[in-house]
């Protein structure tokens, strides 16, 4: 055992000198954080496109419930016999759409990509703490994706119990066809996915804590790193709970246990299970499920902070408040899960408690939104496509977050629970906002990832189609929810009061189709620019963080020679007295005497004395 | 570099265009055909395309249907040929598909051409030395401002039109409190949403990049931050307290009120609801899921004599202005008992009973007058995903006067039918005799 460790170490040292990289080790089983980030991103994009196509399918069903689309039969076969999607398949579509978007796109695709890319880069590390585990993290994720897509090719169809897979529906194949092999695959895929997340999370946390470069103390980390760090903590603490929920469900399904099952008569068959509780599953699920939405949105907030600050040419407003609100969200996210269960028959008093914690979490979120606006105030805003997406993200975060105040209130939730109001709420605040955060990251760090620039014009085109499209898709849904239209309904034709919404559904579906086609602009731009984009300069956005001090061409270990030392926080934009409107983190204060402020030195008397002397010699007056 | 992208893009686009043209060419031909037919006999063409698209059934059916169509309208050779083609692969389906693909590609081409024209324009500006590197930046800022207008007017439109579609006053006592709180929350959130968007999207315009300006270095201001931490905290505290007490008053009904209320049990199963009234004794008999049988689908335990007079309700009928306590249970998986007009919802969970007690204040008749819709009904929906029939698993809820309620109740059937009584008597003879005598 020990000999293998030694030989591995030796090989590693050798590798610094000369690279024996084959195609396989460079592009497939890569242990380099930059390549793994790209792998996560491209897999995430493919999953996003797949999940988006699923959503278009059920949107078509909702808009034209009485119409046949024979072409669907060509693609879907028995699931759309006669060109009309079947109710069971409709449920599969919403289930897999939700699962893929939440887990594969917005969890792995977002934090997997940018944590891997930016944590070593922005902290000044040569790679992740454990590159091998990092590689495993990707491959577990990849296999999870393959299994999930594979579930479309089993005879009984993919899982169809909703992305929340509440038992008994998910436990009993007799209650719905999708709970047969399809659900087994779903569960297998999820176990692998969680393994991937845990490995990733351990890696992110240990890298952030141990591998920061000289001078990079915690309060000099960019907000992106703070958000990835806290996200990883949330994930590491909550995902294992989902594993336990999933494993118990596997036992209930396959080993005849009764953790979640009791008193069941399905299809006239009296089942032997006794003593379990479906509510137990809901507790376990939402103990992950609610932190999960912060796992999804916090990285987006981090990326947005960085992009807004860079492109406003202004320090992010209230850096400490931003960090503390992220910490607040992290802590509170673990004690709010019960707000998903107000009407499940959970003790109503407990519901009241969860309602209080839930509404408290709105405070740090509000602080973040206000701080973004304060950052824009008196800025010098440059509208790169990334900046457009960041602004869109803030807009979605506000308009979607506000409806959370309704849903977090147990009293109002009675009437809104599980209606389209909920669909509208989370698609805006965690769906659209996070996707926009992710796209803003892609546009901003694309030059870092691929060494080339994306086409700006296509970027703007993509932004406007998506931004307006997303609002047109999700905003009307609030009103359906207020009217009492339940989510996951196959058609709005059975109950007279819903029929008026079919016309709105047509608008929504057209908006979804057009916005969906608009994503082609992104795909063409993204994949086309890998080979044909304009060559990027080293620091195309005049940004302060360390990743822009690395060479454009990717090298093993990120920096040729020494790792840069960090002297200042990452937000010295437009500092008065400096000749440029940005000062990278690795520029020492001795080179920026004309712009230093006394509180930059954090009580270092010697530095203050030198600065004061310089000020006197150069007749510089410092306010404050 | 830009040109390179476009060249490659163009060649791919051109290729796709050619492919789809190949597929579409017969369509356009067929369509011009059919327009001719249209003028002759509209019915014939629509019928044939219909049959062409639905034709999986088999040759016989299709030829049949097309034959009848043809005999109905002016016979057209092309139509028959088409129908025969359709028996195998329905080419019209593919043609239609590629027609839309072509449309999309045309749209792409137009967009690409516009983009190209813009690049040429920018190039000429550059050559003339009139190019302003910030002009695009200004454009985007202007578009964001335009979006603000769109956003605000869209909000206004949706509140006034869709809002009025969606909003109906609650028809229960506690629902009025919920409505009041909803409107207060709505007012606060709408105000915040509108103000923040005005701020956000006007800042982006006002502070767009200018050539000679630098941003204001302003890293923090603790007092402002304190204000916008404390103000939302206070507003939320008020909402929380208000919500908490209302929630308690809805869910925490005093015991004597629980007992004095009318008891109704609702059982959910895939994909229907069953309603059970307690009968004359006012007590709902026990249910034991193990007693479920083809004749006793509800699983009522008839060993409990309280169950003998339990009444089966076809709909949920309740008297107005009387407190009703619903016992919600499930036979198989989780369902949800949801009456939007009443602001009532609680899940039906197998293995446990959930309760919701409320007082309806509006009868169905009054509601119909109010809605000006003689067919309006309160409806109870299943609101928890429960399988393929989830979307039409509802039950009518009828609110009537007390006299009508009593009258209705007396006309309903009992769960303990003759058949069940006999079955019960056979399995347990001693009990069976008393059963017969009681009923």
UniProtKB/TrEMBL annotation, chain A:
SUPFAM superfamilies reported for this sequence: Cytochrome c oxidase subunit I-like (SSF81442)
Record membrane topology: Multi-pass membrane protein
Origin superkingdom: Bacteria
Keywords: Electron transport, Heme, Iron, Membrane, Metal-binding, Respiratory chain, Transmembrane, Transmembrane helix, Transport
InterPro entries from the UniProt entry: Cyt_c_oxase-like_su1_dom, Cyt_c_oxase-like_su1_sf, Cyt_C_Oxase_1, Cyt_c_Oxase_su1_BS
TM segment ranges: 40-60, 89-114, 135-154, 185-205, 225-251, 284-304, 316-337, 349-374, 386-408, 420-446, 458-481, 501-527
Coarse class of the protein's main subcellular location: membrane
Subcellular location: Membrane
Residue span(s) of domain Cytochrome oxidase subunit I profile: 23-567
PANTHER family the record matches: CYTOCHROME C OXIDASE SUBUNIT 1
Family per similarity comment: Belongs to the heme-copper respiratory oxidase family.
Protein name in the entry: Cbb3-type cytochrome c oxidase subunit I
Originating species: Sphingobacterium tabacisoli
UniProtKB/TrEMBL annotation, chain B:
Localization, UniProt: Cell membrane; Membrane
Main location: membrane
UniProt-listed SUPFAM superfamilies: Cupredoxins, Cytochrome c oxidase subunit II-like, transmembrane region
Signal peptide as annotated in the record: 1-29
Ranges where the Cytochrome oxidase subunit II copper A binding domain occurs: 259-411
Record key words, sorted: Copper, Electron transport, Membrane, Metal-binding, Respiratory chain, Signal, Translocase, Transmembrane, Transmembrane helix, Transport
Keyword Protein biosynthesis: no
Transmembrane segment boundaries: 97-123, 143-162, 182-207, 227-247
Cofactor(s), names only, from the UniProt record: Cu cation
Role according to the record: Subunits I and II form the functional core of the enzyme complex. Electrons originating in cytochrome c are transferred via heme a and Cu(A) to the binuclear center formed by heme a3 and Cu(B).
Protein name as catalogued: Cytochrome c oxidase subunit 2
